[in-house]
Design goal:
This protein is mainly α and 170 residues long. The protein has helices at residues 2-13, 15-26, 39-56, 59-79, 84-113, 130-148, 158-167. The chain starts with a helix and ends with a helix.
Length: 170
């Protein structure tokens, strides 16, 4: 249970390093309440650490979480509003998020093939420490793919930020 909660939490936060780097690239002059120095070093390392945490949870946990995540994506597409504007935006934006879907598949496959699988049922194809090294190298590739896949013109403005900060100060 702890593995599942930890991995699910990390799966939600692992987008942060990709997002901050992408926003630094696409909106360098955006007013920020805090500007992290060394983000180009810290962000890839944070994504790498998050990937390892998810991977080390093992096949049983990862297959469940990634399965639920991909299933919920399918349900979203099945029941989303299908007006012309939404379809047009989806056609133009799906490539920006493709890296994340492929990343989840990569982590799932590595969890199945690596040393953190259920050895009572499955045999280890990629032994330790090579499995962790492959996940690390692959994760860095996905990190840079995610940054490169960012929207060219982010849908965020200073007014959006100001509104969020006033809503959060009760």
């Amino acid at each position: 249970m702890v593995d599942a909660v930890t991995s699910a939490t990390v799966m939600t936060y692992m987008i942060g390093p990709v997002s901050v780097t992408a926003l630094r690239k696409t909106l360098p002059d955006l007013v920020r309440p805090y500007r992290l120095k060394g983000v180009h070093i810290i962000a890839p390392l944070a994504f790498l650490a998050a990937s390892w945490i998810i991977y080390w949870a093992g096949w049983q946990t990862d297959s469940l979480l990634i399965g639920f995540t991909l299933a919920s994506l399918i349900l979203y597409f099945a029941f989303m509003d299908r007006d012309a504007q939404t379809r047009s935006q989806l056609r133009s934006d799906w490539k920006n998020g493709l890296w994340l879907i492929v990343y989840y598949v990569f982590i799932g496959v590595m969890s199945f093939l690596g040393s953190f699988t259920n050895t009572k049922v499955y045999s280890i194809v990629i032994p330790a420490p090579w499995d962790t090294i492959v996940v690390g190298v692959g994760s860095l590739i996905f990190y840079y793919w995610g940054v490169a896949s960012a929207l060219r013109v982010p849908r965020i403005t200073d007014a959006d930020e100001a509104e969020e900060s006033t809503l959060g100060n009760f």
